[in-house]
Amino acid sequence: MIQPARATARTQVAVIGAGPAGLLLAHLLAQDGIDTIVVETRTQEYVAARIRAGILESASVELLTAAGLGDGIAAHGDEHRGIYLQWPGERHHLDFVDLVGRSVWVYGQTQVQHDLVVASEAAGRAVIYGVTDTALHDLDTDRPSVTFTTADGASERIEADVVVGCDGSFGPSRSAMPASVRRTWERTYPYSWLGVLADVAPSTDELIYGWHPDGFALHSMRSADVSRLYLQVPNGTDVDAWSDDRIWDSLQTRLGEGIDGWSLAAGPITEKSVLPMRSFVQSPLRHDRLFLAGDAAHIVPPTGAKGLNLAIGDVALLAPALAAWLRSGDRSLADAYSDTALRRIWRCEHFSWWMTSMLHTSADPFDAQLQLSQLRWVTSSNAGAAGLAENYAGLPFGF
Ligand code: FAS
Ligand code: PHB
Fold first, then answer.
1. What is the extent of the structural domain holding 282?
2. 8 Å CB contact between 56 and 107
3. Which atom of ligand 1 sits closest to the CA of residue 293?
4. Does the annotation mark 230 as catalytic?
């Protein structure tokens, strides 16, 4: 059968994935006069509706604000001085502003994604949703390209100077890196998170990370009227095996045991899902004309609230690097991108593993004593608390 001719478009940077990494990269490149086309396999509505991260580091807020994307954060974000760490009978507040001079912000990824889509549409940027068969070609030449099938079945090609994989954990970009140069590290944890969104005012002013013999629990939030909570559950947990009553009872036990005068307000659960816990890094983040950013390059367990912030951090490095290369031929930042990004990635990988290991319980009583000892130290030692604060509140993008 004669293949239909591919319609071909031409741009400077072809971006695969319209999640926060892809749309923020296109936004920042546009501010440097660099043209992009973004292709996305899901619909815009699907991407917008995904319930994911909830915490922005100060550096992320500063970058988004400087890029003209801060109005939503200023109007609806909630600045937090720190978090609570607790175990049965004890709850301790760590004040990041006192400890390291930086705060964090509660502003959901869905809100970040909304702000990026609004900015993208206002600028008339090309984002093609609903594509299939995405494939990357000629990445080791000066004419790399991306081919795909559009939602209405047309075969298309984008020719670019550079291709950036912002296609998350399951996109094609990772494996487009030649096996001869790529290296991966991975750790799967022996537990998952059951996450719920509930139409009820939070029962705390700042996030509570709770160690408990029954398992870890986290009280987060999305607004003054919406709570976001998580429970450690075994891998393979069927979310339907957890009734709303069972969820609220477990959360009350794990977050309230021995905390006099405190109780958890329950309310209608509007979303619940089970999230597996994984650490993953792929190196390098660049080979010839292919770059990786965000979850396409790394995954962290959400305990350290780093996933979205790492994606923003990668793009904060990559956008100026590509702009320098494509506008003035200066490749120095592009050549340094992978090594620079990986330093911060591994710091966040370690912190996310450390928080996860400290707070998630196993059947091993020796582990439990180690965890409680670490929690007592972190909440009573200025040095221990500052170490957690420095990492949670976020290190400079160039770290
Ligand atoms: P994303 O995965 O957001 O975006 C990648 C995009 O590429 C997707 O829209 C995908 O559809 C698209 N794509 C994939 N294959 C493609 C193809 N072949 N062609 C075209 N497009 C393709 N982080 C936290 O900090 N806290 C949390 O609580 C938290 N919860 C999470 C819950 C879940 C279920 C998941 C999956 C992640 C969670 N994360 C959390 C991490 C998350 O926030 C990511 O770090 C963040 O979405 C990273 O953004 P991107 O790199 O843009 O990847
Ligand atoms: C969230 O609000 O979704 C959230 C907050 C902190 C985390 C993980 C998730 O560590």
1. 7-78+107-185+278-357
2. yes
3. 51
4. no
